[in-house]
Design goal:
CATH superfamily: DsrEFH-like
Helix content: 40-55%
Number of helices: 4
Distance between the termini: 11 Å
Shape: globular
Radius of gyration: 12 Å
Length: about 100
Amino acid sequence: MLVSVGPEHPSFVHALRLAQAAMEAKVEVYYYCLDDAVKGLSDPGLQQLRAQGLRLFGCAYSAQRRRIAPGDEALYGGLTMLSDIMAATHRFVSFN
């Protein structure tokens, strides 16, 4: 999943719910936060899914541009990482 909207946007919530449903169906979920979505990396619901096995990634450049210090709430990387995730997945969805 690619999410680029902030946590206040309905699509952020929709992506979170879809990730939760997929995980309940025993699907391995990779969740990459880009642009304003990096503001939501510490979202309690997202972190709960991470604790349950969600693979959570944040765009390092997006975080830097928003003056968010990378922490341990996600694995930070660049668009090359996103490209690798996309190439290795069976399905890919984006929430903008």
